[in-house]
Specification:
It contains seven helices and no strands. It is mainly α. It folds into two domains: 171 residues, no CATH class; 33 residues. Helix 1 packs parallel to helix 7. The longest helix is centred in the C-terminal third of the chain and has 68 residues.
């Protein structure tokens, strides 16, 4: 998994999205129709990260509720864990896509790095306090923990790059704007000079024009 994110660190990330997110919207058994609509509305790079985090938090809350309820909870928890992993994979795809296309995710990445460790604590608590049938979802639980760790590593690297990149891009844009303004000012000066020369040339070649009025 770490190989996925080390490409981000060097700014050479290969787009891992196999299909546009819109195309996947019709085949997301791990999301409700309401959640799909929320994703569709969250077009901003950071906003969508926050939405994915809320979906993951929802799955964690439901896992804890199932564990506290009586009865056999193995299948429900395993299903919720797989949903959590699928959401996390889409979150990674989104971060990868935005990183490749210079989408400013700094606010969303900070929120991910703030809330992700807390989600990890919940997953590790489930792992450290097994109940009846825990072995049936232990593999999914390990995968969820590993995936979130991987996501946090990648988010840390991506944020470090973007914190350097975007101020530099802003400074470069300002420098370009200043250079363009200077160039336009010089061009206007040249245009005025050329007009004066044309007028002088016209008067010299048409001396009668000066006395017509």
């Amino acid at each position: 998994m770490n190989r996925y994110w080390t490409r981000i660190e060097f700014g050479l990330a290969i787009l891992l999205v196999l299909a546009p997110l819109r195309a996947r919207a019709q085949n997301r058994p791990f999301l409700t129709s309401t959640e799909v609509d929320k994703l569709r509305d969250a077009q901003g790079p950071s906003e969508r990260i926050k939405v994915y985090l809320s979906f993951q938090q929802d799955r964690l809350g439901r896992m804890e509720a199932v564990r506290e309820a009586s009865g056999d909870s193995r299948d429900n928890i395993d299903d919720l864990l797989n949903q959590y992993i699928s959401i996390d994979n889409e979150l990674k795809d989104w971060i990868q896509y935005q990183f490749n296309h210079d989408g400013d995710m700094r606010k969303g990445l900070r929120k991910l790095l703030d809330e992700g460790p807390t989600q990890l604590e919940v997953l590790r608590h489930i792992q450290s306090s097994p109940g009846p049938g825990s072995s049936d979802f232990s593999m999914s639980l390990r995968d969820a923990i590993a995936d979130m760790n991987d996501t946090l590593d990648g988010a840390t690297q991506a944020l470090a790059v973007q914190q350097k990149k975007f101020p530099q891009m802003a400074a470069s844009a300002k420098a370009e704007a200043r250079a363009l303004k200077k160039e336009r000012k010089q061009q206007k000066k040249l245009n005025r000079k050329e007009r004066k020369m044309r007028n002088r040339h016209h008067k010299n070649n048409n001396p009668d024009d000066s006395g017509k009025n």
